[in-house]
Amino acid sequence: MAKYIFVTGGVTSSLGKGIIAASLAKLLQARGLSVTIQKFDPYINVDPGTLNPYEHGECYVTEDGAETDLDLGHYERFLSIFTSQNNNVTTGRIYQHVINKEREGAFLGKTVQVIPHITDEIKRRMLQLGADGKYDIILTEIGGTVGDIESLPFIEAVRQLQWELPEEDCMVVHLTLIPYLKAAKELKTKPTQHSVKMMSENGVHPDVIVCRSEEPLSNELKKKIALFCNVKIDAVIEATDAPTIYEVPLMMMREKLDLFCLKKMNITNYHEPELGKWKEFLDKLKYPKSKVTIGLIGKYIELQDAYKSILESFVHAGAINECKVQVVNVHSEFITDDNVDEKLSDLDGLLVAPGFGHRGIEGKITAVKYAREKGLPFFGICLGMQMSVIEFARNVLSLKTAHSTEMDANTPDPVIDMMAEQKEITRKGGTMRLGAYPCHLESGSLAEKIYGAQDISERHRHRYEFNNQYLERFEKAGMVASGRNPETGLVEIVEIPEHPFFIGVQFHPELKSTVENPQPLFVHFIKAAKEHAEKNGNGKKQSV
């Protein structure tokens, strides 16, 4: 039987439940246990696929094509395992399933209610991953904050599972805030007490309280929290701010969070944590030997979570190159022919980010032109790759009106066009080309050199593609299709062999980068940026 750990949050959102859950899972995994994590989100959207990045950050896509919460990216990056459709469940998906069953007559005329029908479906989903015996422990992160109206059915489901499952098979870790009042120079426990009280009123009592704080907790303060929240003192875990999220597992290990959970769940078949590669990564991250400046050209730069997986991929690639990657956000909407040199001249590399819609498109095209003409290492992802194709068509092939039909449905030169199978689709949610697809790389190409293989698989999320009617003209002019889908012929990768480093990919490589297996495209892009910096004598950038 799998055992279940539920991670809840109190006082305020954005405390880092996903990082705490991923860190605890990493420690349990490092001790030899088979672990996975799932996220239950209380919003009514069926999935985040139709949400604006400003609303919810990036939409993370799994191997099997699920559009999910960005926390699943943290789970995969920490654990180096794939998540799936079953690892992210929303209120919308729960209600949709129950209502569909009611329409089918599955409830035999019963009145359909939150309890038991909604809570039963939540419980079924919570236990689903543990049903096949594949995992020893399932961690479940409950989105939102205790006390939110929309979270109540999930908290009720946890209460019922605490009653239904053997005591040693189920536990609750509650993440809360201990604010520091600078005027009083004091840490305050009252918000945590109220948060735990609110949980208890809903019938759920935490076994562990993880306290987020800007300042360390004294033993006296821990005793006070333990006394008034009715837990043992060793169940009060300090979680102060960390320089990087990748230090949090080691912080939780020092606080013995994993050992407390193992003892509570009566697990004895574990060993000392094997974290050698993790610590080696942290050493390289903390003590880089050089530095590069990368321009992230995007349209959602006001919210860093919109590009979370890209930013984390830079961290992974920087560490393996023993190089600090300083990311400079450049809003594509404000790049023009007149100011592009001023905005981009100090960069060692340029990444044009994914996105949707017309806003900021011309700025991205201008940035690509600058990188192509100046020999600046360039990396385009999804829309970024499409912008490199449009730029090349306009300025090398002299197709001045070339565009994507996403932005200009009537362009006479649709070098980027909607995929054939997408043209009859009207529903937006879950209908893009999603999940992992194979890609065959041309022998001798930059892509093959980077991957060290000719057949790869990467994850997608798009409706538009390179228009193969123009492919011959592109290749004659110097932009080649070095990666293609072996079944459909879809162009997956374009590159310019004459350029020091110019590559665009239709897929999203950032989704598969992890601490222990950095994504090769990012690794080689940072390597190329280092070489560019050295070649151009950017000594001040190279010193850390």
Q: Can you offer a commentary on this structure?
A:
The mean pLDDT is 91. Helix 1 packs across helix 9. It is globular, with a radius of gyration of 25 Å. The protein has a nine-stranded mixed sheet, with helices on both faces. A seven-stranded parallel sheet has the order 5-2-6-1-7-10-11, sandwiched between helices. By secondary structure, the protein is an alpha/beta fold. A hairpin with a 5-residue loop joins strand 3 (60-61) and strand 4 (67-68). The protein contains 19 helices and 23 strands. Helix content is 36%, strand content 22%.
Helical residue percent band: 25-40%
Q: In order across it, which strands form the biggest sheet?
A: 13-12-14-15-23-22-21-18-19
> How would you sum up the global shape?
globular
Would you identify the regions where 5 or more consecutive residues have pLDDT less than 50? none
Count of extended strands: 23
Strand % is: 15-25%
Number of helices: 19
Q: Terminal Cα separation, in Å?
A: 50 Å
**Rg, Å, rounded:** 25 Å
Mean pLDDT: 91
Q: State the major sheet.
A: 9 strands, mixed
What structural category characterises the helix and strand content? alpha/beta
